[in-house]
């Protein structure tokens, strides 16, 4: 199993163009780290560690993300031997659905967090294991000082994560740990389900993106990503599900999609959806 280093991730993220090569799979041990490893399909998903941030109660949260090396192919990697944390002490809302490589912001940033206790040392790690396209990869999360993230605001750049509510009179949360809707949204196969969020930010406009986080079937959205004017009105999308079962939908919002590259500052929201026939 291969462990990814920050230098490898850096080279991937600074690739300037997508490859137009065929979908032939290339084993990681035989790859030169350039845009040539990005293919339409047949390549693995790379697990990534974005960094960590402290919480008010003394705990720390580790941010994990991913880089799908396919521009067209989404992958499903079920929980278990192919998709798990290497430490049973910690629980996390691991994704099982991995969207293709975004054309602009390069990888999916901090799609889930793992909170570790105040006595978690700099010598300890939490390892995310991910196997896809016949290749087993793992990435360690840690609290080394060089990896600390600005959260939920960046004093240097003057950015702040949007404030998000998932119900009109509910609590509001700002930052990567996110907000979880406290009740499931109910729906039926093939019938659009309304998902709403209330977003506040000092800027007049913010970016919003929706994704399937986990679940058995395909999910299509009326809009995948867009910008909105911040106001008292909620942002709304319709999601349509191809199969019955339990799903998690992830919404991310940031003042500008370009700001993802500075690793600050966005907010996650998670919606549990129960679909029946």
Descriptive tags:
five-stranded antiparallel sheet; globular; Immunoglobulin-like; single chain; six-stranded mixed sheet; 1 helix; 2 domains; 277 residues; mainly beta
Note the topology.
Layout: E1 2-3, H1 6-13, E2 45-54, E3 60-68, E4 75-76, E5 83-85, E6 97-98, E7 108-116, E8 126-132, E9 135-141, E10 153-154, E11 159-160, E12 163-165, E13 173-174, E14 179-180, E15 185-188, E16 193-200, E17 205-214, E18 219-221, E19 225-229, E20 235-241, E21 245-254, E22 266-276
Parallel strand pairs: 1-9, 14-22, 15-22
Antiparallel strand pairs: 2-3, 3-7, 4-6, 5-8, 8-9, 10-11, 12-13, 12-16, 16-20, 17-19, 17-21, 18-20, 21-22
